[in-house]
Structures are given as C-alpha cells and as structure tokens.
Amino acid sequence: MSKILLVEDNEMNRDMLSRRLLRNGYQVVLAVDGGEGLAMARAESPDLILMDMSLPVLDGWEATRQLKSEPRTREIPVIALTAHAMAGDRQKALSAGCDDFDTKPVELPRLLTKIEALLQKPRTRERPAP
Amino acid sequence: MAGFQTTDTLKARHPVHPIVVLDYLVRLPGMLFIAAFAVAHFAGRQYSPVLVAAMVLTALWPHAAYLLAKKARDTKQAELRNLLVDSFIVGCWMVAMSFSLWPSVTMAATIMNGNLSVGGFRFTGKGVLAILAGVAVAGAFLGFHPVFASNIVTTSLCIAATLIMTSMFGIHSHIQTGRVYKAKNELATQNEQIQEQNRVIEQARQAALEARDAAEAANRAKSAFLANMSHELRTPLNAIIGYSEMLEEDAQASGNAAFASDLQKIRSAGKHLLGLINDVLDLSKVEAGKMKLYLETFEVAGVVEDVVATAQPLVEKNGNTFEVRCAPDVGQLREDITKVRQVLLNLLSNACKFTEKGRVSLDVTRENDVTGTWVVFRVRDTGIGMTSGQLGKLFQAFTQADGSTQRKYGGTGLGLALSRKFCVMMGGDINAASEPGGGSTFTMRLPGDVENFDGEATSIHVRKTAKDPMLRLSTAGPPRLAAGPRMLVIDDDPAVCELMQRVCTREGFDVVTASSGEEGLRLAREKRPAVITLDVIMPGIDGWTVLTALKADADLSTIPVIMISISDEKNRGLAMGAANYLVKPVDRDRLAGALGPYRAGGTAVV
C-alpha cells in the first residue's frame, strides 16, 4: 500500500482529499504547513507528496525546493496543487522541482491517474532540470 | 460723427480706411478755403482763365480724391497719394499767390499737420518734397514774384481757416484719444475674461487629474478586492463541490440512485458557479491589465489530444459525432498553454452546446500568409447557427445571442469575450462565421513562428529575473534577428514587454525591454536603439519624465520615441518631442505602421 503525504492547510480540503485517498486504497499522512510537511517527509518517507502551494510558515514552493535539495527526500515525487486562476503556477511549480501539477478543486480521477503514473515510475530517475 | 457711421456702412461692402472719410471732411473746407484765398487774393485784379480753372479744380478736388481713394484696392495708400497731391496743390498755390504770407503759412501749416497726423514723419518729408515740387512746377510756368503782404480779406480768411482747421485737428485728436481709451478698456476686460477662462480650464484640468488618480486608486482597490474575493469565494465552493462529490460516490456505492442524482446536481451547479466566478475574475483581470501570459513551447497535437479528451463527454451529451483532424506538420506553439487549452475547450463546448444530433469537428492546421505563419484551429458544428446581428454581438462580454438563448442553453456569455481577449493577448484572434440553421465555424489563429524563440520551455519567472535583457535575447533569439535595427521597449507590465518583443521581433527588430523608466534610460544610453517605444503610465519615473530626459540628452535626443498610453494625449506627446503616439489597445497593424519608418530595408522577417 503506497503512503501519500498530503500537505494542506485548509481543514476541509485536507479532510476531503485524505478520506478520498483512503477510500482509494492509499495510506495517508497529513501535514498542515510547509514546515510540518518537511518534517513529515523526512520522518515518514512517503511514496508521494501532494503539496498545496499556498501554505503558512513555509510555502509549498520553498518546501519543495528544500525537499528536492536533500538526498533523503529528493527522490520522492511531488505533485503541486494550486488554485485554478493562477495559471503561471504550473510553470512555477515545475521549476521549483515538482514532478507534476494539478489544480484545485481536485478532480479525483485525474489526480489519481497522475499519482499512479508517478508511483509506477522507477525511482532511479534523475531529478528533472529546473 | 456721421462720417464714422458712413465708414462703418461702407466697411460692410468694401473696407475703406477711416482716414479716407476723415480727410474728405478736412479736405473739403480746406480746399474751399484755398479757393476763397485765391478769390480774395486776386480781388480787383484781372482773372486769367487758367486761374479760374485752377480755383474750380481746387474746389472739386476733395470729391475726386474721395472717389479715387474709395475705389482703390488699398484705400489707405490711395489716400496717402491724395495727401501728396494736396501738398503739390499747396505748393502751386503758394507760388500763384506770390508767397503771400498769411495764405502760404496757413496752407503749409495745415497740410503739414495733416501729413504728420496721417502719415507720420517720413511721410511728412515726402509731403515737403511734394510742396517743393508744386512750387517748382508753378514757378516754371508763372515765375517767382514774391509779395509777402496780403489784403485784409485774405488775412481774415486765413485766420478763420487756421482756427477752423486747428479746431478740426483738435476735435479729431480728442475723438481718437477717446477711442484709444475705450479700446484699452475693452482689451483689459477681454484680458480678464481670458484669465478667468484660464482659471476655469486649470480647475477643470486639476479636477480631471484628481478624477484620474481616484479612478486609478479605485481600480487598484478593485483588483486587490477581486484577488482576495477569488480566494474567499473559491474556498467554500471547493468544499461544496468536494463533499457533494464524496457523498455522490458514497451514494453510488450503496446503490442509492436518488441521492446520487441529487448530489450530482449540487456538484454540477457548484462547478458551473465556479466556472462563472473564474470567468468573471479572468475578465476583470484582463480589463485591469493584470492578466499575465506564461509562455512555453509545446506540441500542438498534445494539447489537442488533451482538450478532445476533456470535450468528449460534452460531445456525447447531445448525441453529436466528433471529428478531429490535426495536420501532421502542425508542430509547436509558443504560447500560454493554459489559455490555449481554455479557449479551445470553450469553442468546443459552445459547438456541442448548440448542436443536437449533428456533427462537431476540429481541424488544426499550420498556414502561411503575408503576415507570417499561423496555427489555425477551426471548430465547425452543424448546430442552430446565428444571424448576422447575433454574430455582431458575439464577442461582447455578458452578451449571448439573445435572452432566450440563455434560458435554453445556460451560460453567461463571458466565455467568448474572454476567449477573444486571450487570443488577442497571445498575438492572435478569433473569428466566427455562421448562418441561422446552417451551423457555425469558429476560427482561432495563433502566431506559429516558434522558431523565433528558443525551443526550450523557459518560464516567465526565469525571463523576468534575467540580469541583462540583451543576454536573454542573444540566447533566446536566432542570430539572424540580431542584424535588425535595435529597438527599446519601456513598459512596466512584463506581459506587454513580452508581447511587444514577440510582435516586434517578427517585424524584424532586435528588441531590448526595460521594465521601468530608470532601466529604460540606462539601456537607451548603453544600447543606443534605433527606436524606442515608451509606456506613459509607469510607477516611479513616468513616461513623460523619461521622454523629457531623453530629449534633454544630446546623445539620445535624436532617437525617435513612440509613446504608447491608454490616455489620448497625442498633442502633448508630439509637443514634447515624441515621434508618434499610439493609444492603447494598440493592434499589430498600427504598431507595424508606426514602426515602419525605422525598419531597416531588407532585414524585416515576415
């Protein structure tokens, strides 16, 4: 069973997405801000991270950059989640080192496809150029 | 005074100079006096016929002089000639009357007085010459026999003439003085009125400036408010959509079909509302000039595939068939992929919405014409179509073809307005062709010359932070473009800089961009561009200040500057030395036209 770290500050979004991921057979660990997200990533070694980008304490961009610069966590795929209107976030997310990107509100089937695609990739792959 | 009124009435037909009438009124008694002097002078002597004729001519001359002057094209010049004739006549009479002192002095003094008051010093000199000429001519015929004494009648006449003529000049000068004062007062009044008008204009200008500042502040407040609201509106809506979706999944899992269908309605209404909110926010962003483009290079076929997959359920909903033809050579685009996808999806969903059991098709091709190479997306349907009146209103915000359409098909009518705005921002356009009942064709064209830029996807974020814009250009642009004339774009909006760079690079310029007035002035000195485009409203140093600084610098003052602004202050711009002034929004043709003179021959890349 794959373990997914969900970093999301909005309680309802966290509740919804975590329950739906559980229902789809994933193990879910939660973090409410970027700082906690980093700590959980180091402690729990999840198989994949879903990262909201507008987070308190440490925002998603910075948290991802730090994750991708540490040898212990750089291999963990990160999917950035941002609000629909911020179209440029896609670029920003990819250049911060995110492996994929999706918009909120989450369309679950689409997100699940992206999660599965990343989980099935061999982990030996190089970190993409920023 | 009656004479002046006559002048006025004459003026209406033919502008007769006032001195013509005035001189007539003086000349008439003057010449009668001369004739009377002659009668008195020669009293008791024998009259020669020549003398009688001369007296008659003298008495008639004032009328002749008046008519001559009145008919002349330049009445004042004619009148001055008349005065010289007067002087000549006086000279003749002085000889004829043997330089008899009283008549001679009276005649000479009067004519000199007249010459001085009408013609001034130089003219008086000419008058003296005319008198001397009269003396010489008359002397040649009559000989000089000076007898200074005069008889009592002549003397009395001369005294009367002197008094009358002097009084006339005095009265005239009094009237003139009165007129001067009146004119001066009128001038002062008019001056006051002009000053008052200037004050009013200045106040209006101040009010307009304040109103502009207030409007700009309100606009900024609106943008900030919308940005906040967008988050505030979306958060609860996301919860509504998300939880209803979860409950729907639950209901389906437990086989509760009634719940599932109700929950599905809540979810789809929520999504609809979210779409509307996004459209309204996008539209207000575009209108506030806050919408930014995030350019990347991508395969067109990939986006088409993506959009087609998303549109598939919409196609099936109304029982339509769907054909997609994507030309194999369609290649890449360098655009904001999210916006391309959004526009394409909007066109397809419209086609599906207004077509039932028909055919929807999407053709994607790469086409070349004189304006360059384009990637063209054609969305055709066999649906209800539109009248030409409906077509005309199609791309206006909040306007659907008509009210009944909205009730039947839903939607806000924002989609197409937004789509067109996006396309224009991206350097392209959307057009529509349709017939009622005959289906519609929507054509989106986007500039396809991706080879003008580097093939790698470069985010706007990286571009913006590049230290030296030239460095960025030299790595981004192929070498052939570096040969074009250099152009400096000064605009604080990175989206405008980006767009100008794309359009002007295509026009054959080697484009350098500056995001502030300071940077613009620095780059102007360093790069010595062939032409500068300058945004007027910028934070910090505004466009006017930049223009003034450019024109004050001897090295830079010859560089043509094209001002670009939302406010039409063309005269001010041209007065301050701008070569041209374009009012936003600037379309590509106008920009190209304005840049035409500065494009080096043969280097333009079309």
Description:
Chain A is of the alpha/beta class. Chain A is built from five helices and five strands, in the order E-H-E-H-E-H-E-H-E-H. In chain A, strand 3, helix 3 and strand 4 form a beta-alpha-beta unit. In chain A, helix 2 (34-44) packs parallel to helix 3 (60-69). The longest helix of chain A has 13 residues, at 11-23. Chain A is globular, with a radius of gyration of 13 Å. Residues 124-130 of chain A have low confidence and may be disordered. Mean pLDDT of chain B is 81; it is low at 1-12, 452-482 and 601-606. Chain B has 606 residues and is an alpha/beta fold. Classes of the chains: A alpha/beta (130), B alpha/beta (606).
SSE topology:
The complex is a heterodimer of chains A (130) and B (606).
Chain A (H helix, E strand, L loop, with lengths): L2 E5 L3 H13 L3 E5 L2 H11 L3 E5 L7 H10 L8 E6 L5 H7 L4 E5 L3 H13 L10
Parallel strand pairs in A: 1-2, 1-3, 3-4, 4-5
Chain B lengths: L1 H12 L4 H24 L7 H23 L3 H22 L4 H42 L9 H102 L3 H31 L8 E4 H18 L3 E6 L5 E4 L1 H17 L5 E11 L2 E10 L6 H5 L10 H7 L5 H11 L3 E6 L5 E8 L12 H6 L3 H8 L2 H4 L3 E5 L3 H13 L3 E5 L2 H11 L3 E5 L7 H10 L8 E5 L4 H6 L4 E4 L4 H8 L11
Parallel strand pairs in B: 2-4, 8-9, 8-10, 10-11, 11-12
Antiparallel strand pairs in B: 1-3, 4-5, 5-7, 6-7
Helix pairs in contact in B: 1-2, 2-3, 2-4, 2-5, 2-6, 3-4, 4-5, 5-6, 6-7, 7-12, 8-9, 9-12, 17-18
Low-confidence runs of chain B: 1-12, 452-482, 601-606
Distance between the termini of chain A: 30 Å
Counted beta strands of chain B: 12
Task: Give the oligomeric state.
Answer: heterodimer
Largest sheet of chain B: 5 strands, mixed
- Range of strand content of chain A: 15-25%
Shape of chain A: globular
Tell me the Rg of chain A in angstroms: 13 Å
Q: Ends of chain B: how far apart? A: 78 Å
